[in-house]
Amino acid sequence: MAIQHLTDTTTLNNGVKMPWFGLGVWRVEEGAQVEDAVKSALATGYRSLDTAAIYGNEEGVGRAIKESGVPREEIFITTKVWNANQGYESTLAAFEESMQKLGLEYLDLYLIHWPKGEKSKDTWRAMEQLYKDGRVRAIGVSNFHVHHLQDLLADATVVPAVNQVEYHPLLNQTELRAFCREHKIQLEAWSPLMQGNLDLPILTELAQKYGKSAAQIVLRWDLQNEVVTIPKSITPSRIAENAQVFDFELSADDMAALSELNENRRFGPDPDNFDF
Fold first, then answer.
1. Boundaries of each NADP-dependent oxidoreductase domain copy (predicted)?
2. Closest CA to 196 of 226, 235, 161
3. Catalytic residue status for 55
4. Chain mean position to CA 157
5. Beta carbons of 202 and 229 less than 8 angstroms apart
6. CATH fold for the domain made of 9-259
């Protein structure tokens, strides 16, 4: 499947279209920093923005959207419910708070940020209600392993549309990708650029071969694996450069070579072992 434009979309399991590529704003400061990053991304042509309650920058994201001049209906906006707010009533309240901060009438995608066992089932019921009420166009999860998904699906009436996880050549999540594909759950990558750990010989080699940066090689690998990708940057030139991955295609051999880098190595927390 050819993904050739920044505005190209994947169709989620409920028919909603989500851009393959977007801007992540994890660890981007509230205020001018996040506002400038979002405006820069939208001016470049990005149409997907990913934030979360715990990032503390939903208000800045909302302001930037309003000031950008881009019509609301053209932008796909994701936020997430934080662990401390999981549970039925508390999720509904957290959603209203996020919507107020973002200044939105509706949300495109709402995610459970991390799996929290039985509590996540109550959270999911609340999200199903928000979905049925038309407050959010799609609901999903983040950082869920296969067993977390199986546990949720046992009681769910709505199958998650998206699972956003750490994903890159050193952590290629083969089993999870297969499970999500089987259940029509779109996989999405956070930290696709391995938090800057790009000094791998094969990335240098492929960057020279294709006339691209190591980051662009990794982002293209994500897209050709049909994984939605949301690299974070606050630098306008880097935001633009990250999006310049639609004018080339990695060969099957080069795709395979990158996949063989897998070490099941995480730069972020393991969803089976975190304490927040």
1. 22-263
2. 235
3. yes
4. 23
5. no
6. TIM Barrel (3.20.20)
Q: What pLDDT score was predicted for residue 34?
A: 97
The pLDDT of residue 140 is 98
* Per-residue pLDDT at 175: 97
Contact status, residue 34 vs residue 25, Cβ threshold 8 Å: yes
Catalytic residue among 46, 55, 131, 167: 55
Give the whole-angstrom CA distance, residue 161 versus residue 148.
Answer: 15
- Does the predicted TM-score (pTM) go above 0.85? yes
pLDDT in tens, 61-104: 999 999 999 999 999 999 999 999 999 999 999 999 999 999 99
Q: State yes or no: 113 annotated in a binding site.
A: yes
The token pair that represents 29 in the structure block: 């400061």
> CA 167, CA 146: separation in Å to the nearest integer?
14
Chain mean pLDDT for the chain? 97
